[in-house]
Fold this sequence. Notes:
CATH topology of the largest domain: Rossmann fold
Largest sheet: 7 strands, mixed
Number of helices: 13
Shape: elongated
Bound molecules: adenosine-5'-triphosphate, magnesium ion
Distance between the termini: 46 Å
Helix content: 25-40%
CATH class of the largest domain: Alpha Beta
Amino acid sequence: xxxxxxxxxxxxxxxxxxxxxxxxxxxxxxxxxxxxxxxxxxxxxxxxxxxxxxxxxxxxxxxxxxxxxxxxxxxxxxxxxxxxxxxxxxxxxxxxxxxxxxxxxxxxxxxxxxxxxxxxxxxxxxxxxxxxxxxxxxxxxxxxxxxxxxxxxxxxxxxxxxxxxxxxxxxxxxxxxxxxxxxxxxxxxxxxxxxxxxxxxxxxxxxxxxxxxxxxxxxxxxxxxxxxxxxxxxxxxxxxxxxxxxxxxxxxxxxxxxxxxxxxxxxxxxxxxxxxxxxxxxxxxxxxxxxxxxxxxxxxxxxxxxxxxxxxxxxxxxxxxxxxxxxxxxxxxxxxxxxxxxxxxxxxxxxxxxxxxxxxxxxxxxxxxxxxxxxxxxxxxxxxxxxxxxxxxxxxxxxxxxxxxxxxxxxxxxxxxxxxxxxxxxxxxxxxxxxxxxxxxxxxxxxxxxxxxxxxxxxxxxxxxxxxxxxxxxxxxxxxxxxxxxxxxxxxxxxxxxxxxxxxxxxxxxxxxxxxxxxxxxxxxxxxxxxxxxxxxxxxxxxxxxxxxxxxxxxxxxxxxxxxxxx
Length: 567
Ligand code: ATP
Ligand code: MG
């Protein structure tokens, strides 16, 4: 775990574990796991689960947490996902040490367990098709119907199962099912499928198997084989818990982990389902899994979010049993707080307005001293070049300023941060279009550093860069990915793609930043004064030519929009 101290918050899972410890359950062992399916990149929801599982292990003496790939579906899984998940867990600040496991490593053992179930008359080979099995399952109000295969003898089942494995049958011709209760009020207990025939190449076991175990069967047994004590999962598995326990009760497993469910993290204005994220990526709605607009860990990293901020967020939102939707601004506030502490302040101008300071000598450059963090002198300072021609932000000037506009206007004086007071003398326009092309200003040499010796005040302080010295850079500004707070709520789930925000990214190709930033390394983060926090893009930046992603604005502009409406 890395440096900062993130407060852990009490929750019902930590309380349950405390009771188990008090009762010396599992001889006082605490052993959790994070069990991703390698069928996509990790997202913010997974971060919640990672923080919880690795966090609980870390805060209990001798506690362990495994990283286990639940790789039972070769059709959707691959090595790229495995590697990305390992990278993301590490980046988030967690270490599985030598505790890296794959469910596929247990395929032989799982097969042996299935043989035991068959011998005991607790599993049978069925020749019903997938559709027929569905029809036989019944509904929530009607019991299911027994398949005729249910009465097949163990010897015959064993023979068929061995032949399934030997590759004698076509896909879908047979499945192995648990023999539980077709009338159970819990649909998951109505003879669920344990194995299916699938002639697919697996990223770890290759072509060794043509039958693959189902998730429910695999998951509980993998937990037990690894000695897991607390198997923490999301609420949709609550109805699967009786099945989880059933398998463990029937088989001679080394231990019986306790399944505990908690509510998934949902964030508004985005989607946190791997299937949907995959669709956004493969259909080209975003530039890749690492698109800075996505809630994937790799996307948030590229955008400039820190692991510390994400971990802090995962603690603050609490772990509960109630499904809620967390406001994106909660996450953004965690990011702001963390970046406020750690980033250097620099200046950049996104939409330049040229200013000529008429009484400043031509050909002179001054190097002005500017601290990196006004609240933290330990972060030091740098020199910023000042000269006769500078850029300020277009929106920092108004020819006819309304009330409460304290920035530059004709005849008005403002402060240039760390530099001088300047006064706007004249507005220069393009003769044909009438557009403002430049401002003519004067400066007061006595205000060097930004204060007037005569004590006169100005209301506005602007950021700026020297036109001759500034580095031209590409800057990308991001907004919400969706226009709808709940794009995939059940009420309009089919149309979720139609709620993509067409303005979720704005690319500014010719922004100007202070020259020292030509040396900024990828993934370094800054506060551009008055504009927000920015991070050097880790994909498109080249040597000496950084591309900046705006991580987050300085204030919650969404909250401010609402305030404006109220005014
Ligand atoms: P998705 O719906 O995105 O495909 P998943 O549950 O299928 O997610 P897994 O790879 O199986 O993805 O997830 C690994 C672990 O992360 C599981 O224990 C799962 O419960 C947990 N997890 C997944 N999504 C969330 C979420 N939104 N909030 C909290 N935990 C989550
Ligand atoms: Mg899952």
